[in-house]
Amino acid sequence: MIPIKNQAEIELMREGGRITAAALQRTFAAARPGVSLLELEKIARETIVAAGGEPAFERVKGYRFTTCLNLNEGMVHGIPSERELVEGDLLSVDLGTFYGGLNTDASWTVYVGDRQKAPPAKLNFLRAGEEALGAAIAEAWPGRKILDISAAMQRVVEGAGYTPVDTLVGHGVGKELHEDPQIPCLVMRGPNPEITTGMALAIEVIYTGGSRELKTAADGWTIETADKSWGGLFEYTVAVTDEGPIILTDLE
């Protein structure tokens, strides 16, 4: 059953979403060559706690970090480490906030270093993810279907020459970090529920620069591309209203 949020719950998630967005913004502001992933983890955690939130990922059984940090071929669930950023890395930051009894979740992928000197191929790869997320969110209207969201992101990602993954999905979000419905990154067989007012959705564009085959790294958590191609991750928490989708974790 898909949980439906009332207006009071949406307002709490809006506040939690501001905290989530602020944590992402501060983390990316510090993401320069020579900075370690553990330093970014510390900044994200301090931002969430100082604003009155609780790091949502620390509530996941067996996981003790505020963030999942992935580099280059990393897709999701990357563990913060002493690894220092270098010019040209693609860094994905995924984090969430538990606030007022409700979760918000967001992620973004950026180029580390001077974007003016960045290879166009890397910037094009990131631009495709951003555009796919925007197209996917635009489908989150009452009366449409979950796979309309999936079709929109698939169209943009594949149209740019990249590959949406088929084993990782977006999801509902609220009292639990992961709720129904699942939101695939491409059109697949399976449930296709109608989108209704009051849904809160963590819409995620998860894609690669090569094959969609993934593998789990030696740390037991990090999922990365099997062919070492780039991984991209773009996610916002979105509330569905009668007036259309509202982004609760907007980085703007």
H and E string = HHEEEEEHHEEEEEEEE
* Global morphology: globular
User: Which spans of ≥5 residues are poorly predicted at pLDDT below 50?
Assistant: none
Q: Would you report the number of β strands? A: 13
Secondary structure layout plus pairing:
Layout: H1 7-29, H2 37-50, E1 54-55, E2 67-71, E3 74-76, E4 90-99, E5 102-111, H3 120-137, H4 146-159, E6 163-164, E7 169-172, E8 179-184, E9 200-208, E10 214-216, E11 223-225, E12 231-241, E13 244-247
Helix pairs in contact: 1-2, 3-4
Question: Would you mind describing this structure in some detail?
Answer:
The protein is of the alpha+beta class. Helix content is 27%, strand content 29%. The strands form 3 sheets. Strands 6, 7, 8, 9, 12 and 13 form a 6-stranded antiparallel sheet that branches. Strands 1, 2, 4 and 5 form a 4-stranded antiparallel sheet that branches. Strands 3-11-10 form a 3-stranded antiparallel sheet, with no helix packed on it. A hairpin with a 6-residue loop joins strand 10 and strand 11. Helix 1 packs antiparallel against helix 2 and helix 3 packs antiparallel against helix 4. It is globular and about 45 Å long. The two termini are 32 Å apart. The model has no long low-confidence stretch (mean pLDDT 97).
Task: Jot down its keywords.
252 residues, alpha+beta, 6-stranded antiparallel sheet, 4-stranded antiparallel sheet, 27% helix, globular
Brief overview, please?
The chain is of the alpha+beta class and 252 residues long.
